[in-house]
Structure formats: structure tokens, C-alpha cells
Amino acid sequence: MGGVLRDLFLNRAKENPDFDFCLKKGAINFGRKLAKQIKAGFVVLDKEHGACRLVKRINNRPYTFDFTDFRGRDIKEDLLRRDFTINAMALELDKLFSKNAALSLRQKPALDSLSRPHKTAAFKPRMEADRDSAKKETPGGAPLIDPHGGRRDLNAKTIRIVDIRAFDDDPLRILRTFSFASLLDFKIDPATLRLARQKRNKLGGVSYERIRDELFKILDNPRAFDYLVQLDKLKILKVIFPELEKMRGVGQGPYHHLDVWQHSLETVRQLELLAVELKDNREIRIFLDETISGERKRLALLKLGAILHDIGKPAALRREGKKLKFHGHERIGCDMSQEILRRLKLSNDETSALAKIVLWHLRPGYLADNAELTPRAIFRFFRDAGGETISILLLSLADQRATKGPLTTKESRRRHEKVVFGLLKEYFRRKKEKKIPRLLNGDDLMQRFKLEPSPLIGKILSELEEAQAIGKIKHKKDAWQLAKKIVGGSS
Q: What is the 3-state secondary structure of 128-163?
């Protein structure tokens, strides 16, 4: 029932197929016995409501089997409590097996018959259409149980809640409405959208881990911008990120054509356009497709960075005459972003990466504004940006492209793009180079200058590394002379 039927009708393959089974009662006991029999992993999901999960690897692919007790008197009452009509369909396995048509992953003809398109009674009243839909043949000829028109909504590519109480039963379904729409490229039923807006505040009671997972499903979509705009218009986004409200309506001066919040959304759009533009760049594509934690990819995290990159501007806003200044907004935004990511329970790697992206997002622009891009400036940028160099450069490009005020000139934009693309090329070139060994190490310094372990050692090594990288020193003799100068200057 549920998702597996939906995906079969859509002829949609999943890497890790999951199957849902409903029993009148005793689902946990049944699941435990079955797990032993087929040697599968077993876990109780919800003892009170009789839910358990089996995980079995078949032909090197993981399959998930969920077993639950009826949530209601019968299967129809159970389906009434599901989230969306496209997930509220079922098959009666006893009837399926009685026709010698056991559902098998190897039974291609049966699966093909389920995924084959059917005609739909588009102009019949809903109850009659639902009744016809329930009679559609499925694998092995078993009748489909579809009391809420899930098959009809699949054909119409529509996300629709089953019952008006759906969002009360589980408010996370408000976000799942959009994550499912983004996953399947479906439209959302207008009545469902209206109810999502009405019930939006209930999301405040949902754990942030669950919110995070649905949010990243949306961010993972190549057109996440469209769904973020919808969530914003329905005032759902501000329930998740109340900090964003202070960005709304904050002007930014003549270099910008949008307020801080609309500019941040536009930066997401420009980032998605940039990802398409650079899709044939293998090195960038591999970086953006990298999984940084769980199932979350770098590009999705970078989109969140685009949303948050100017979050510190309202707090940093100062007026100097007729000019608006936002000095230090990147550092304020870095602190605010880390707090939001901790709330979302993102990993340390993700939190560290996004903090660095927000902190240094202005740096490429500063480099582009300089009359000369020196080796020292390039070295320091790469040193500070570290593993997030690509993310910071791409965000800087999207940020610049989202800035179209009257004082933003074609020449400044051309210069910015030339510098950023040049830095990307240089970064990948340096990654392929063999790292130059240090001329001196910490032990050398402590022995020669009779120093104890201290921050001074790190400072000397850092300055030696920079001088060596830009060609200022090439031999040990040069390194000793510079080290002696630094030690003397610190005493």
C-alpha cells in the first residue's frame, strides 16, 4: 500500500524501495517473526500504535518493509488517516495471492501492468470517479482499494490531502505537501494550500529534525526557489525561520534593486541557474553532488547558505548621512546561522561549512574590487576559505547576479565574474599540484629559538607558509631569516 503503489503507477524506480503493510492487529509480533524467518533487521517504530520496520538487503539493494496495525476499524478507515490521496491506496494481499499472482520484484509483467496508464473519467462526479478508480486492475488482477481518488490525482499530477484533519494529525504534513510536490513535480491542490496556510503555526510544535529532513528534500530540487516562494507567500517559512522576518523590507541602497529578504531569495534562484550553467564542469558538479552528511548534498546546503548569507544585515544596519551601511553583517550572520543550524540538528561538518560560507561570502567581491589581484591576496583567500572555497565563489557569483541596482555597472559585474571564474580555475589547478613541503617545522623553531609551545609557533609557521607559497622565500636560509625577524618583532 501507499508509496510503493504510487511509485509503480508512476513507473518510478527507487534506490531503496519501501513497502507498507497494514494488519488488523498484531503487526509487531508478525514483523518480529517474519524478520527471524527472512533474516532481516527489525525495529519497533511505535509500540503504542503497533508499528515496526524490517530492513532486508536483496541483490545488494536495501528494502524497507513497514508493518502497522489498522488505524481505525478497517482498511478504509486506515486510509482516511493517511496524508495524501496518492499515498492512500492499497491492495488486499489475500485476494492477490488467491489468484496466484504474488507480488514479486522479479515479476516484471505484473509491475508493467500496474504502471501502464489507464483512462480516467475526468467529467464524472467525484464519488463515481473514485468508485471507478477502485475497480482498476493491479498486478495479478487484484482490485485496487482507492476510496479517495489517489489514482485520479496521480493522473492529474496533484498533491491533495485525504482529510481536512490531516494537518492536525501531523503538522509536518504541511511541509511534506511541498516536498512531495517537488519530488514528483506535481501541482498542489488549491484547497490543500489554503489549509496549509491556516494550519501553518502548528509546525511550531514539530521537532526540528523532522522539519530539517523535509526542508532538505525541497532544497535538493533543481527548482527549490519556486517552492520557497510558495512557502513564503503562505507565511509558512517564517514559522520555521522567524529570524528571516527582520530581513523583510530592509532596503540596501542604490547598488541593490531588492530588499534584503527578496535579494536572498533571488540569490537562491541565481544559484540554481548557475548550477545549470556549470553542469558540464565535471569538477564543480562532483563537488556540488557530494553528500556532506546523511543524504544531504552540498548544493542543498549552499542554497540554505544563500537564504542566510545576509541574515545579519538588519542587526548591522547603520545610517551614515544618506548612506546605508552594513559593516560586520557577515560576522553577525555567521553567528546567527550557526544557531539556526544547531536548531535544525545539522552535523558539525555542515554547521562549520555553512558558517564559513556566510562569514567569507563578501571576500571574492573585495578581491574583484582591488586594482590588482596579488598572489598574497589569493593565498590568504584560499587559506581562509579552505574546503568551502568553491561554495563561497559560487555564492558570490549568485549574490552579484542578484544585485541589479542603478549603481551596479556592467563593468563591475564583468570584473567580478572574471575574478571569480579565475579563482575557481586556480583553485582546481592547485588541488592537482603536489603540496610543497615546509622548509621548517615547529620542532626546528623551538630548538633554534629556545621557544616553548605557544601560539607564536603557529604564527611563525603560517607566515613562513605564506611567504613560501607566493615565492618570497625558497630556501631554508631564507626561512630562518624570516623566522628570526618574526621572533624578534614579538619580543
A: HHHHHHHCCECHHHCEEECCCCHHHHHHCCEECECC
Which pLDDT score is estimated for 106? 39
Phi-psi region of 481 (alpha: psi -120 to 50; beta: other; left: phi over 0): alpha
- Specify whether the CB–CB gap between 334 and 198 falls below 8 A: no
Helix/strand/coil for 67: strand
Domains of the chain: 3-24+70-156 (no CATH), 158-237 (1.10.110.30), 241-432 (1.10.3210), 442-490 (no CATH)
C-alpha cell at 440: 621548517
What's the rounded Cα separation, in Å, for the pair 384 and 333?
17
Residue 246 per-residue DSSP state: G
pLDDT at 137: 52
Amino acid at 446: M
Query: Which of 162, 158, 154, 218 lies closest to 189 in space, CA to CA?
Result: 158
> pLDDT tens digits for 422-434?
999 999 999 888 8
- CA–CA distance, 23 with 51 (Å, rounded to integer): 10
Which amino acid, residue 96?
Answer: L
